[in-house]
Design a protein that fits this description.
The complex is a heterodimer. Chain A is an alpha/beta fold. Chain A contains ten helices and twelve strands. In chain A, helix 3 crosses helix 4 and helix 4 crosses helix 6. Chain B has eleven helices and twelve strands. In chain B, strands 6-7-8-3-9-10-12-11 form an eight-stranded mixed β-sheet, sandwiched between helices. Chain B has a four-stranded antiparallel β-sheet with strand order 2-1-4-5, covered by helices on one side. The longest helix of chain B is centred in the middle third of the chain and has 18 residues.
Chain lengths: ~325, ~325
């Protein structure tokens, strides 16, 4: 654990300059991911979790841009790099998978064409050995009879299989960091289980760092080593999965966990967070959660800084909930 | 234990046939032997829902749960089988009586964006049906709409607005208000909270729980989310590829699933309490309903499959009081 983290994000701010005003989609976000670690990035729609992922890939398009902060990948800052630099990194050292695998797959090209292209874009290898690597990658993510599947088109695969192909492509060049943006949200329960199983195995076996972006706390509970909870563009709580899910310190995290049906007595009303997520366009000053928070008082008019409530357990709140002392 | 169920489906099947196009018909004249494609969305399904009961219907995509919901709601005609309301066969009734029954059964859909007419104001979306069916007079309508909106937690101030001016959670409330406006006894919720964020989902589920008490409602709650179904339902029905594989009281089902598919489903669900979960995946994919495997539909993925499972489809039979399962393992000596 003494080695430098694979990724260190420091005070990242990604804003969108729209006609209606500035949308602070990502506002002062910091976290680290170590080798072989799975970081769960959790939040509801509009929390900025996906834009954080896009920022890490250099995929933020105008009117959005990274206005501040550093993205240290293996010690080197990626903010402000040239497009040529990004091309060398993307799909090579850093890879991403998306909710809809058809976003990554070209519908008119055979799977082998797409996979060989990915390898040859980053390495000087001949077609035959590239194909061999593609075959191995498909087998690695649990695709049966990879030889035949290489010659198929994306539409000939089921949703779960497509997501496996997308993952196999992301893994082709043995990236050091994989960013997964809701990759199992559209899949059925038994298929989701299969993908999560492969993901865990990969992180353990290859030492690849992973950021798993999701709205589903239960997925994070079973998969991630550490968790960042985002709300309105900010990380409101971060810590080990056990700390955050079992002893949440931020009222939002607590409310979110309380909303999950399995945490409530059957048939009884669920704990609920009143109100809804604020628009990022006209965020009130201070803590963005205060209008929905039962603990809010005058202090919350000033935005809280992240403070540690335990080792490695940081919370951005003036009134952190008492966490059970270990 | 034998009250007349509120809504009952008996031996219901639904086939969707994709007919031959002109080119294929012509090819057939030349002996090409093109066949019509038939999807067996529902294969001889029987289900009874008792008054004031909440029945959860769970299954993965393509299992026929939405088709079953639509047939139960009367939106779709079954290919075979009968539908009974309080013991009366609905299709045999005179039109006026049948319509009275259909009004008692309302449906709430998944997508709060697609299920509301974007060109209608909320007041009309909610008020149109009760007016058309003579539940309220034109004079009372606006007051009635306001009351209904308040019941589902919407501000009646917004009655003149259009659906696009609302968030996803509020839109779902509009859909619920529309269903409630005709004073139904039975609500069919098809993935009604699937598109919502966790905190909003909790609010809507709470609304369903409250309305159940307030209006003595009966629910058929269709969802792929076992957590939601476990929380809300009295009984759970598990479907796989057009057939019901297990029916049990919620607590029993989650404590001791009988069917291998139910067991796999429960193991595959990520749980908030679990750490470093293994997600014990069940192998294989959901087969296409165009070409379901013979015998038990689950046998290609089942760890306990026997030769018999490949040939004979197991019947859904009572294995304990109030508990049904369709698996040959229950009869293996």
């Amino acid at each position: 654990m003494t080695a430098a983290p694979t990724l260190a994000v420091e005070h990242l701010r990604t804003h969108f300059f729209t006609r209606a005003g500035v949308v602070k989609a990502v506002d002062d976000v910091s976290f680290t991911v170590n080798r072989g670690e799975v970081l769960g990035l959790v939040g509801e729609s509009g929390s900025g979790k996906s834009i954080t992922g896009f920022s890490l890939m250099g995929l933020v398009d105008p009117p959005g841009r990274i206005v501040d902060g550093r993205i240290l990948f293996q010690g080197q800052d990626l903010v402000g790099r040239s497009e040529a630099d990004w091309r060398r990194l993307r799909g090579n050292r850093i890879a991403m998978i998306f909710q809809d695998p058809m976003m990554t797959l070209n519908p008119v090209l055979r799977v082998d064409t797409q996979m060989i292209e990915t390898i040859q874009a980053h390495a000087d290898v001949d077609r035959q050995s590239a194909r061999e690597r593609a075959r191995a990658a498909l087998a690695q993510v649990g695709i049966a009879s990879p030889d035949e599947r290489l010659e198929a088109y994306p539409h000939q695969f089921s949703g779960g299989m497509r997501q496996r192909v997308a993952i196999a492509i992301a893994l082709l060049n043995k990236p050091d960091l994989l960013i997964a943006d809701e990759p199992t949200t559209a899949l059925d329960v038994t298929i989701q289980g299969q993908i999560l199983f492969e993901a865990r195995k990969l992180a353990r076996e290859t030492g690849m760092a992973m950021i798993w972006i999701t709205h589903d706390l239960a997925v994070v509970g079973g998969l991630a080593d550490r968790v960042c909870v985002m709300y309105a563009g900010r990380v409101v709580e971060t810590g080990s999965t056990t700390d955050v899910l079992d002893h949440p310190a931020h009222p939002y995290t607590d409310g979110l966990i309380g909303s999950v049906p399995s945490r409530n007595r059957r048939g009884q009303p669920l704990k609920q967070i009143p109100g809804m997520t604020p628009s990022l366009l006209d965020l009130p000053p201070g803590c963005a959660f205060r209008d929905r928070c039962g603990y809010a008082d005058s202090r919350c008019g000033v935005s809280p800084e992240t403070e540690d409530v335990g080792p490695g357990h940081g919370v951005r709140c003036h009134h952190p909930l008492a966490t059970v002392a270990a | 234990m034998t009250p007349v169920p509120m809504l009952e489906l008996r031996g219901v099947s639904k086939r969707f046939v994709k007919g031959l196009d002109l080119a294929q018909k012509m090819a057939n004249l030349l002996g090409a032997g093109e066949r019509e494609e038939v999807v067996h969305a529902l294969d001889h399904v029987s289900l009874a829902v008792n008054e004031r009961e909440v029945v959860g219907l769970v299954g993965e995509s393509g299992c026929g749960k939405s088709t079953l919901g639509r047939i139960a709601a009367g939106i779709m005609e079954p290919s075979d089988g009968t539908r009974l309301w309080l013991g009366q066969e609905v299709s045999g009734l005179p039109a006026a009586a049948a319509r009275r029954i259909e009004l008692k059964i309302q449906m709430i859909f998944q997508d709060p964006f697609a299920s509301l007419n974007p060109r209608m104001r909320v007041a009309d979306i909610i008020g149109e049906a009760p007016l058309a069916h003579g539940i309220v007079t034109r004079g009372e309508a606006s007051q009635y709409v306001a009351d209904t909106m308040r019941r589902v937690g919407l501000d009646p101030e917004f009655a003149r607005r259009y659906p696009h001016q609302f968030s996803g959670g509020q839109r779902q409330r509009i859909g619920i208000a529309r269903a409630l406006a005709v004073k139904p006894d039975f609500l069919i919720c098809d993935e009604s909270v699937a598109a919502l964020d966790v905190s909003i989902q909790a609010q809507i589920l709470n609304l369903f729980i409250r309305l159940r008490e307030e209006f003595a409602l009966t629910y058929l709650f269709i969802s792929h989310d076992l957590g939601v179904v476990e929380h809300l339902s009295d009984r759970v029905v598990i479907m796989y590829l057009g057939r019901i594989v297990e029916i049990a009281a919620t607590e029993e089902l989650f404590a001791k699933p009988n069917h291998p598919y139910t067991q796999a489903l429960l193991l595959g669900v990520p749980r908030l309490e679990a750490r470093n979960q293994d997600f014990a995946p069940v192998a294989g994919e959901i087969p296409s309903p165009l070409d379901p495997p013979p015998g038990c539909h689950f046998h290609p993925r089942c760890p306990h499959a026997m030769p018999k499972c490949r040939e004979i489809a197991p019947e859904l039979v009572e294995i304990a009081p109030g508990r049904m399962s369709a698996c040959h393992l229950n009869h293996a000596a």
